[in-house]
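subagent[fold] <- orchestrator: predict structure for attached chain, return tokens only, no commentary.
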Amino acid sequence: METIRLMLVDDHDIVRTGLSAFLSNQAGLQVVAEANSGSQAIEQALETRPDVVIMDISMPDMDGLEATRRLKAIYPEGQVLALTVHQDKQYFFKMLAEGASGYVTKQSAADDLVTAIHAIAAGHVYLQPPLARWLLDDYQRLSSNQKSQASELSTADSHDLEVLTRRERQVLEAVAEGMTSPEIGELLGISHKTVARHRERIMNKLNLHSCSELVKFAIRTGLIDL
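subagent[fold] -> orchestrator:
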């Protein structure tokens, strides 16, 4: 098993010293650098090339959010694990957005930290179960909103379809199938000029402005199948 090289970033000397002592005694882990600020972390990371950067969030000079964003931009192969006192959604989602691969609170058990380090060093994501629930809740909320919007759109489209006459629906279906005006006229037994007038009325009724929009409308309402 290859040794995982670590860098500790925390503005509290006592915290860094304790972490360094603990992690150095874990098989397969090696602390290669320490930093007391975000700006120092970037400098040290470029010099020592750690596999995993254990990043605090609240620090002077440059906080962990900004440091993570900059670090991932110039050293993307380095994985960032947030280790923080902040157990709230605001920091959780911000750290993930800036590129962190894991998030562990300082209230966690020591074994959780070691597990997180091995997980993200292997290219995985590590989130404590209570925090992962936030991510699931956010995804489910977004999915629910999208379904609701799609349902509202579908209902509105179905209502719009009802304003068309039977002949207009026939023309719309043929247009959506890619038929030309002469072909539609031959199919329905009307002139291509009448087809054009029907298409113009359809667009006016549905407030659509191009054939591509007509096609999309026909697909959404189930008038044609893909």
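orchestrator: received. Logging for downstream: Confidence is low (pLDDT under 50) at residues 152-156. The chain is about 60% helix and 15% strand.
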